[in-house]
Design a protein that fits this description.
The protein has a domain of 216 residues. Helix content is 67%, strand content 0%. By secondary structure, it is an all-alpha fold. The chain is built from 22 helices and no strands. The model has no long low-confidence stretch (mean pLDDT 96).
Length: 432
């Protein structure tokens, strides 16, 4: 490995993400229910995917099938990264981990394809290289459950085989979403002012809300009830898999950084506001943060007594997504405290599945605690806790980025108040 290659952050991040894809395949082969790998994948691909479906549960999939699903989807994502004009940045890291993270509840190798095709159509319309829009192709998969819905259940509400109408609707929705998401994602920062790291969350949320309203409310078609279908999970498998992956990231980052942790302390203290860690601190500290932050997330879920279902494992990787663009254990901790306070007084326990997944996306509010201080971060986390379980009703449970959408809503209300009554870290330094 040459020194110049080490300095090419795009090449290193691409290699790291390809390594995670390989890890998913290895995890599939080492899963405790290996004989169910293909039958489990078959169930994952052919059943409705509305929030929240636990693909670890035998009736819905299998652990081995889930890992194979993540490997297949990860392979598609990695292929996108090798297209001409595709550049791998912190935004690619978040797109990849969100896409593969949801492979354990809601996303699969079938329901992502019409949406990625939609971004391909967008690229043709705009006269752009598809590789230039690779990240958008991954972000568009946020509404994958809509594709499964029209393919296997819409409009009767009963699970049926694939119909010509379902195929036409899947392609149509894919094109609508694929052609809309790039524009919406570009506009989203004006909505949350950079304080929601899950930038595609508000874009996907509002778009899914409109499509859901047309498909069901406007046409008078009953929508399926929103409810979790969960299994018992597998604590040992998820923990061992994640610990090995994240520990190897720390080792890799250490080597890339010249056998040193130099620079990681500054990254750890960063506010997380409008930053790409690889560009600002170097690829070594960035990769170290992937590992450190991943272990931090895993330790938290163990501490609160989470059940390690498919959605919990997915939450670990979806939460990890922001590790290259602003999230660190330090600026996410106040968000966690806000969630803990909410659980002490609210109706949902801190280790309830919806709250576990909710915290995953509440972590996207990390720049608030980084810029405005831990108290503001705690309040942001508390606000997110209070509304995250109410939001699915407006998009029917078909938006996988539900928590990122919620984070955008928190920003819409909370950031103007903070700007009126508080000072950012930069403003406080200037005042001194």
């Amino acid at each position: 490995m040459s020194t110049d290659w080490k300095k090419d952050s795009s090449a290193v991040l691409r290699l790291v993400l390809c390594a995670f894809t390989l890890a998913f395949y290895i995890g599939a082969l080492l899963a405790p229910d290996l004989p169910e790998i293909f039958s489990g994948l078959g169930r994952i691909v052919t059943l409705p995917a509305q929030l929240t479906k636990d693909y670890f549960k035998p009736e819905l999939g299998s652990i081995s099938g889930t890992m194979l699903n993540a490997g297949l989807v990860g392979t598609v994502c990695c292929l996108l990264m090798f297209l001409p004009e595709a550049k791998v940045t912190g935004a690619t890291v978040i797109a990849y981990f969100l896409t593969t993270g949801f492979c354990s509840y809601g996303m699969n190798i079938l329901n992502i394809l019409p949406l990625m095709f939609g971004v391909f159509v967008y690229s043709l319309i705009k006269g752009q290289s598809f590789g230039k829009n690779a990240n958008f192709a991954m972000f568009a998969t946020a509404v994958s459950p809509l594709i499964s819905e029209v393919l296997f259940r819409y409009p009767t509400g009963e699970v049926h085989g694939v119909t010509p109408l379902g195929i036409v609707l899947a392609i149509l929705i894919g094109i609508i979403v694929g052609c809309s998401m790039p524009a919406l994602c570009a506009h989203a920062p004006a909505f949350h002012k950079g304080y929601d790291l899950y930038n595609a969350g508000p874009a996907a949320g509002f778009l899914c809300f409109m499509i859901f309203a047309v498909m069901h409310k406007a046409l008078g078609i009953d929508s399926p009830a929103i409810g979790a279908d969960l299994g018992s999970g597998d604590w040992a498998f998820v923990n061992i898999f994640c610990i090995v992956c994240f520990a190897l990231c720390i080792v890799a980052g250490f080597v890339l950084n010249g056998n040193s942790f130099k620079g990681y302390g500054k990254l750890f203290m960063d506010s997380g506001y409008k930053v790409d860690f690889a560009a600002k601190y170097g690829i070594g500290p960035c990769v170290i943060n992937i590992g450190v932050y991943g272990l931090f997330i895993l330790a938290y879920y163990n501490l609160i007594g989470a059940t390690f279902t498919g959605p919990t494992m997915g939450a670990v990787f979806c939460m990890l997504a922001c590790c290259a663009i602003g999230a660190t254990p330090l600026n996410v901790l106040p968000i966690m405290i806000g969630y803990f306070i909410g659980s002490r007084f609210g109706a949902s326990a801190i280790n309830a599945q919806a709250i576990i997944v909710g915290l995953c996306f509440a972590s996207g509010l990390a720049p608030i605690s980084g810029e405005y201080g831990p108290i503001a971060g705690i309040i942001a986390g508390l606000l997110h806790y209070c509304i995250v379980t109410s939001v699915p009703a407006i998009h029917g449970g078909f938006n996988l980025y539900n928590g990122g959408f919620t984070a955008g809503l928190v920003c819409f209300v909370f950031i103007p108040i903070l700007e009126s009554y508080a000072k950012t870290r930069t403003q406080r330094k200037a005042a001194k």
